[in-house]
Structure formats: C-alpha cells, structure tokens
Specification:
Number of helices: 13
Largest sheet: 8 strands, mixed
Low-confidence stretches: 1-13
Radius of gyration: 26 Å
Mean pLDDT: 84
Helix content: 40-55%
Length: about 375
C-alpha cells in the first residue's frame, strides 16, 4: 500500500497493545480484532489488490499482516465490492466514494478528538487520569453523535440531490453555471508573526464559523476553508452577492477581525468530491487578490447576471432614467438590491485582460 495521505487518520498503523486503547477501539468499532488484511479480503470475497485500493482511498495505512481488522471492516469491503458487482458503481467510482468519505470523516474525527473530547475529558477530580474519564464519556456520546452524523448527512444528501435533479440537462449536472466567491483576510501573514498561536487559532475559528453561518443562512454552500480564506458557491448571482456584502459588513463591525476582501465570478464550474474547479474558480481567486480592503470585486459575467435578473441596474444613469419614466407614468420605479461600478481593465495572470466591477449595496 502507498503511504497514508497527510489528512488521514492512521489508527490502523502498528496496532497498539495498550489495554485501554484496545477497549476504546472495541467500543467505537463495535467488534474485536479478528482478521489480517488478507483474511478480511478473502472473507469479503474481494481481491487483496482491490481491498488495498479501498483501504488506501479511505486513508488507512499499511499494517502488514497484523490481526487488527474486524467484522465491520469485512462488511465495508463486501458492500463496496457489491456495488461494483451489481453495476451500481464502477470500480473507479467506488474508490472515489471511499476516498471522499475517508477524507471528510478523517477531518471530523480529528476535530472531535482535538477540540471536543480533549476538553470534555479533563479529569473532574484530583487524582483521576484522563484515561479513566475517556471510556465512560465515549460510551455515552458515541450513539448520540452517530445518530446526529447520519441525520446531517441525510439532510445534506437531500439538498445536494435536489440541486442536481433541477439541473437543465445532463451536462449541467457535472459542469454547472455557478457563482463562486472567495473571501480573504487581509494581512493574515503579518498576523501570524504578531499573534500567539492560541490567539491566531481563535481568530481563524471565529472567521470560519462566522463565514460558514452566513453562507448557509443566505442560501450558499461552503466549499472549503483555508485558514485565512473561504471558498463558497451559489446557484444565483444575487445569493452570492448578498453573502459577500454580509461578510464584509459583519467583519467590519468586529474590531478583532482584520479587513476582508471578496472576489466573485460567474460561469461554468466542474464539481468533484465536493470541490469546484475551472477558470471561473481561478478568476474569482484572482479578483480577490486585487480587491480593495473591505470591498467586493466581481467579473463581467457576474455583473451581467445581476443585471439580467433585475438585481442591479446596468448603470446609475439608466436607473435614474427608469425612475423618471416611472414617475411620469404614475407607477413605482424598479428597485435594485445592488449597485455595480466598472473599474479599470487590468491584465490578470493566466486569464488575460479582465474588467472587474465593484459591487455594493444600493440605498433603498
């Protein structure tokens, strides 16, 4: 097997003989160690080569022929192989399912241990060790967290499925037109040199939490966080614009936060394993890098989409003309949520000449 990726949880490497660790493992996995990798593959009716591919994809490292696997491991191999045999998934797709699930749950497990269980397992009384507290706590939390995980996953799956089935055609299910936004903390590198590690961690956590909440609340999807940067997507330009301005407004009112800048582009995006790729994503990233502090820059396609959907006027002159005409005709003038101001054209590395637009909230 290949070395385990840096994001993976290596709990199968060099199986421990520590009695408490073994008890905890049995509690969490729900079964005792029984099989070597070869025995597990044979019992599941899967070739050792395919079993190794599945295990590497899930993020588990080579354990040689140590007897460290359980009935649950055999069942997991059998299920994945069964999906392939039934023709429901191709073998590459089954490996991709294993990889995406492994990467996502590895991050979740690491966070729960580092930030959640570590704090909860502080010994309540002098003389008690952390290990004496861990087992009963895990025993109580495990079923509740498991049910909650399944609930959230089903909810997210329902939302993602709904977006896919509403796509205009089969091609759009994979290569979709989306608004993609990057939000970036200004001067973060300088902050890393000035702040203590704990302060920096608190700032990043506050930024990521606030961003995630705002993106979700206003109908966007958080794609990923990169410490000082957040990547999100939305089906509609108006949704992405609202999120961007809310982020700027919220961070501006928080004195502990540095300035923020946002770049948004609209166009075809390729989605893979929950991430987004393509020229549109690259353009959004470049716009972020040239955006002024506490401002939002968008590309021409995004500006056109806002105008097309009636979210912004093509120009303030046109908006004034429409208002005058409506007044003469005795009707209400059109209202717009956003304003767009053309900026100087400039070359953007790898993308040619771009004409960015400054996005703002239009006074009502």
């Amino acid at each position: 097997m290949h070395p385990t990726p840096h994001h993976a949880v290596d709990h199968t490497v060099e199986p421990t003989d520590d009695p408490l660790a073994i008890r905890l493992e049995q509690l969490i996995l729900g079964a005792e160690r029984r099989y070597t990798p070869f025995q597990a593959a044979r019992t599941a009716g899967v070739s050792m080569e395919l079993a190794s591919r599945f295990w590497r994809a899930m993020g588990f490292a080579d354990i040689g022929q140590a007897k460290a696997l359980t009935e649950a491991d055999v069942l997991a191999l059998r299920r994945l192989a069964g999906l392939v045999e039934a023709g429901l998934l191709s073998e590459p797709m089954a490996v991709q399912v294993a990889r995406s699930t492994g990467q996502t749950t590895a991050r979740l497990a690491e966070w729960q241990i580092d930030s959640f269980l570590e704090g909860l397992t502080e010994p309540p009384e002098p003389g008690m060790t952390r290990t004496e507290v861990t087992y009963p706590l895990v025993e109580l939390l495990l079923p509740e967290l498991e049910e909650f995980l399944i609930y959230v996953w089903r909810r997210q799956l329902a939302a993602a499925t709904g977006r896919v089935v509403q796509a205009a055609d089969d091609e759009e299910m994979v290569d979709r037109r989306l608004a993609v936004g990057f939000a970036d903390l200004v001067g973060f590198t300088r902050l890393t040199r000035r702040l203590e590690e704990e302060e920096l961690g608190e700032l990043v956590e506050a930024f990521e939490t606030t961003s995630a909440d705002l993106v979700a609340a206003h109908g966007g999807r958080l794609i990923k966080t990169l410490g000082d940067e957040v990547l999100y997507a939305a089906d509609e330009a108006g949704t992405a614009a609202e999120i961007a301005l809310r982020l700027i407004e919220t961070m501006t009112h928080d004195e502990s936060m540095p300035a923020l800048r946002v770049g948004i582009a609209f166009g075809t995006v390729t989605t893979r394993m929950g991430d987004v790729f393509g020229t549109t994503v690259n353009l959004a990233s470049r716009l972020t890098s040239i955006a002024p502090k506490d401002a939002v820059l968008v590309d021409g396609a995004f500006a056109e989409e806002l105008v097309r959907t009636g979210e912004a006027p093509a120009s303030e002159a046109e908006a004034a003309e429409e208002a005058t005409k409506a007044e003469k005709e005795g009707r209400e003038p059109p209202t717009y949520r956003f304003a767009l101001q053309p900026m100087w054209q400039r070359p953007v590395r790898g993308l040619g000449v771009v004409e960015p637009w400054l996005l703002s909230r239009r006074p009502q």
